Automatic annotation (TrEMBL):
The keyword Cytoplasm applies. InterPro entries: Mal_deCO2ase/Cit_lyase_ACP, Malonate_deCO2ase_dsu. Subunit of malonate decarboxylase, it is an acyl carrier protein to which acetyl and malonyl thioester residues are bound via a 2'-(5''-phosphoribosyl)-3'-dephospho-CoA prosthetic group and turn over during the catalytic mechanism. It is found in: Cytoplasm. The lineage of its organism: Bacteria, Pseudomonadati, Pseudomonadota, Gammaproteobacteria, Enterobacterales. Keywords: Cytoplasm, Phosphoprotein. The modification O-(phosphoribosyl dephospho-coenzyme A)serine is found at S25. This is Malonate decarboxylase acyl carrier protein. It comes from Hafnia psychrotolerans. NCBIfam families: malonate_delta, PRK01220.1.
Amino acid sequence: MERFEFTYPAQTSLTDRAHAGVVGSGDLEALYEPKSGDTLHVTVTTSVDGSHTLWQRFFDRLSQLRELPAGQLDVNDFGATPGVARLRIEQVFEEAGHAN
């Protein structure tokens, strides 16, 4: 298991906590908690050794494609493909933005 931390500028805020996905073979779990400020702090825990550069590139690209919300994003990965990772992260942001 490896753990990485990244910080990105945040351009928006979301209203509530959210959870998407499960930790299981080929999937990942994304947990989001809103916080005041202007950064998104990302923590990735993964079963895939040696994937720091891939995760960094993934979040660098994501930050170019969408506005990131301020807060804490925890990603618990169990070998998810980039497509699954993007889906789960978009799902958790969507859920947090529409929470009541």
